[in-house]
User: Fold this.
Amino acid sequence: MTPEFLKEQIQAAKNQLTAAYAAQTEGLVGGLYNYSMDTGQGKTSVTRMTETSLNKLIDSLMNRITMLEARLYGNNVLIARPGF
Assistant:
């Protein structure tokens, strides 16, 4: 993977994370629920994402960003061994 590709993926994941945080804030203010609407021509069901699944999505996006940044910048892992 090229550095440019990784940077694009990181930015895309950050954009998704921002949207997920916005959805979480909106959901907590407006409530998380399911509803159905019958217009006479058809029935539509809408399900808002539950708080639990939204939190899992946020955690997943944060992990993805961390993983992509580790690939791009190195994982910054230092293994120390005793000198004796």
Observations:
- The first strand starts at residue 34 and ends at 38.
- Residues 38 and 44 are 6 Å apart (CA to CA).
- The chain has a mean pLDDT of 79.
